[in-house]
Design goal:
This is FxsA cytoplasmic membrane protein. Keywords: Membrane, Transmembrane, Transmembrane helix. With 173 residues, the protein is mainly alpha-helical. It has a two-stranded antiparallel sheet with strand order 1-2. The two termini are 23 Å apart.
């Protein structure tokens, strides 16, 4: 795994240098350096704005004791996008913008979700549907009668069944 990461990082750096040289040949070295500085400044500004917004949402969810959910993922994508924008290189700037801008962040989130899901064992992949029915019958078995989960004199029993869709070996997903 570490070897793959090093190879990908090396290929990424090589691609950044090639793009930098192509842009410098197209618009000139001075303008290319100015564009690199401009994208770095834009990266800092977007990181500050979007990062403050994401941290505010995380803070609000924590204050209301709600699960963080997508807000944590957005904060991570904003951090990665900010780093990519601040580092010199035009390819990193494009990917960083995709991570930083809210209208395009869902694309990156979807790609990462598919990549992670494809690496999971087949038994852990979704979709899993859960059907449940609520009944109010006394608890039996080891708890006996009189043991009430709700604590209000009535038993709280939720019967459920997890239904997993089986996929054929050649099916996508």
């Amino acid at each position: 795994m570490g070897h793959r990461v090093r190879v990908l990082a090396g290929l990424w750096a090589l691609a950044e240098v090639v793009v930098f040289v192509l842009v410098a040949g197209w618009i000139g070295v001075g303008w290319t350096l100015l564009a690199t500085l401009a994208t770095t400044a834009l990266g800092w500004a977007l990181l500050a704005r979007q990062g403050a917004r994401a941290l505010g949402e995380l803070r609000e969810r924590a204050r209301q004791r709600r699960p963080s959910g997508r807000a944590v993922g957005d904060a991570g994508l904003i951090a990665v996008g900010g780093v990519l924008m601040v580092l010199p290189g035009f390819l990193g700037d494009v990917v960083g913008l995709l991570c930083l801008l809210p209208p395009t962040r869902f694309l990156v989130r979807g790609l990462l979700g598919r990549a992670v899901a494809s690496r999971l064992p087949a038994g852990l992949r979704g979709p899993v549907r859960v059907r449940s029915a609520r009944t109010e019958e006394p608890l039996g078995g080891p708890f006996g009668t009189g043991a009430h989960a709700s604590g209000f004199g009535r038993p709280l029993i939720i019967e459920g069944e997890v239904v997993r869709e089986e996929r054929s070996p050649g099916a996508p997903g």
